[in-house]
Specification:
The chain has 362 residues and is mostly helical. Helices cover 70% and strands 2% of the residues. Strands 1-3-2 form a 3-stranded antiparallel sheet, with no helix packed on it. Residues 33-52, 139-166 and 357-362 have low confidence and may be disordered.
């Protein structure tokens, strides 16, 4: 993807706004809680991927290499901040009006704010006489060197940004790559728990005895901590070997989910909010960082567009949670499944191999 990112971002946000205004205005609060997750919610998630997992990430990837993790973390932090702010906004509107009005206001806000992308998003630094990370353009082509052991992003070099061999990956090339299958599956497995747990978190807190308002505050706090987690996990990937960092965050995600199974303890619930919130925030940034880390900057969009198909497996998380509630009248069984899936995901991440070359600064 080499142009038009801002246009795709705007059009996709307008599609999401349409979903808010014309779908949710038909629902009552009870119907939304009891809706068919395999159709209503999953159809929303499918459309949301156009901006969240490819287009905006490509724009960030074009502009950052050495600080890619921090940049991706900040970019994704907006998602978690919206998860902290929008539920509270909707609650305050509902107190004074009704659910339909709340979704109408949120949808209208998306429509009005989306065009800002046309003002701030730019395609590639080379078009402005720069290199990634704001470095000045070089007069001579950089020297390609092979990656040393350890971190793939180091002070001695930057990830490939002009390697012709990595500029475009065909479908046959992608599916022949073991890294593609391992990474795509790992991110999807981890995201199953993130999406499903966050969707039902407020009702779960209410079932634990919190008032509706306090349950909303707890969910918002989880999302807010997740926003911080996105930035910090991304920063860790800039400093340390990304595969190990991301495998660690998936293990931390399992620990957070395990804390969510402890009943009757406010301290355990608070630890769940902190640990799960911090860990789940990093899962969203894991995919984009690892795609660039494993395949190189120029190959990012070519590989990411195919990775999105594997990412659709994450919607199974909604179905796992739904069946857990239907069969056991509890989400605990789903939590156990998500814990196991995160551990499998961590093992898959560790098993990937770095093949993208580095470019010398000299």
């Amino acid at each position: 993807m080499h142009d038009g990112e801002e246009g795709v971002i705007v059009s996709d946000r307008w599609r999401v706004a349409y979903f808010f205004i014309f779908f949710f205005k038909q629902k009552t609060a009870y119907e939304i809680k009891e809706c068919d997750w395999s159709s209503d919610v999953c159809s929303s998630d499918l459309g949301n991927s156009a901006m969240a997992t490819i287009v905006a990430n490509t724009a960030v990837n074009n502009w950052f290499i050495l600080k890619r993790g921090q940049a991706q973390g900040l970019s994704f932090s907006g998602i978690s901040f919206s998860g902290a702010v929008l539920p509270l906004t909707a609650m305050f509107i509902m107190v004074r009006s009704d659910l339909s009005t709340a979704f109408l206001v949120i949808g209208a806000a998306i429509v009005l704010l989306s065009p800002v992308a046309w003002l701030v998003v730019r395609n590639r630094p080379e078009e402005y006489g720069l290199r990634p990370d704001g470095l000045p353009a070089k007069s001579t082509p950089p020297k390609i060197v092979q990656p040393p052991p350890g971190p793939a992003i180091m002070d001695e070099g930057i990830a490939a940004d002009h390697d012709p061999s990595s500029e475009h990956w065909t479908f046959s090339m992608v599916i022949a790559s073991g890294n593609f299958w391992k990474l795509g599956t790992a991110v999807a497995l981890s995201m199953m728990g993130v999406l499903a747990v966050m969707f039902q978190l407020t009702p779960r807190f209410m079932d634990m005895g919190f008032s509706k308002q306090n349950a909303m505050y707890m969910m918002s706090l989880t999302a807010l901590i997740g926003a911080c987690g996105k930035y910090f996990w991304g920063s860790f990937c800039d400093r340390y070997e990304p595969r190990k960092v991301i495998a660690l965050l998936m293990v931390a995600n399992s620990i957070g989910l395990a804390l969510g199974l402890v009943e009757g303890s406010f301290a355990a619930t608070l630890l769940f909010v902190v640990v799960f919130g911090f860990a789940m925030g990093g899962v969203a940034t894991a995919g984009p960082i690892m795609v660039a880390h494993l395949f190189g900057r120029e190959a990012y969009a070519s590989v990411a567009r195919f990775m999105g198909f594997l990412g659709r497996m994450s919607i199974l998380g909604y179905m796992i949670a739904r069946e857990s509630l239907r069969l056991t009248d509890s989400y605990d069984a789903a939590f156990v499944v998500f814990i196991i899936l995160n551990l499998i995901a961590a093992a898959l991440i560790i098993s990937t191999k770095v093949t993208a070359p580095l470019l010398s600064r000299d």
